């Protein structure tokens, strides 16, 4: 079912049929609090991709889903929070996964849509305990922690750079964002 809220679905037209055919589509949520910090979770040691490493909330697009439906579903599944507004698209990146990180039948090329989002009620997250071992709020001063347990092939600075980009955006525009 499509979202009727324009503040949620304003980016849905960015996804093309060609994207769906050629890439595994990923949506990431850079969830921020009133102190311009970004929420991240530490993946459990049993995870195939990025075990024991930090990542923001997100996941792959399911069949028939729009970008806004995907990001709303992932945030709800991984934290129990509902998105109030998708503030902006921080960036879109494309890359190929190393062969050792692929699951059966998975496309090797990913296209990642990184969204800055505000949730309705920021309360204690309900984590997926089998997938996540802990959570933390990050700013530019502690974002380097997210490089722990990541290799160069896994994008050692991937999460840190996303957090810094999100915090920079909030610092530059935060006074102008009204909800």
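-> sequence recovered:
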């Amino acid at each position: 079912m499509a979202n009727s809220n324009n503040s949620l679905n304003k980016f849905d037209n960015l996804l093309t049929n060609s994207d769906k055919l050629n890439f595994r589509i990923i949506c990431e949520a850079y969830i921020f609090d009133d102190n311009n910090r970004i929420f991240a979770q530490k993946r459990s040691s049993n995870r195939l991709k990025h075990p024991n490493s930090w990542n923001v909330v997100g996941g792959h697009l399911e069949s028939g889903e729009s970008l806004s439906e995907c990001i709303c579903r992932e945030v709800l599944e991984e934290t129990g929070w509902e998105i109030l507004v998708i503030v902006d698209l921080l960036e879109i990146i494309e890359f190929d996964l190393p062969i050792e990180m692929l699951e059966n039948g998975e496309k090797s090329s990913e296209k990642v849509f990184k969204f800055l989002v505000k949730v309705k009620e920021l309360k204690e997250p309900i984590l997926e305990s089998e997938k996540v071992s802990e959570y933390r709020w990050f700013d530019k001063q502690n974002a380097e922690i997210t490089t722990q347990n990541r290799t160069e092939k896994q994008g050692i600075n991937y999460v840190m750079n996303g957090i810094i980009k999100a915090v920079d955006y909030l610092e530059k525009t935060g006074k102008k964002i009204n909800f």
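The chain has a mean pLDDT of 87.
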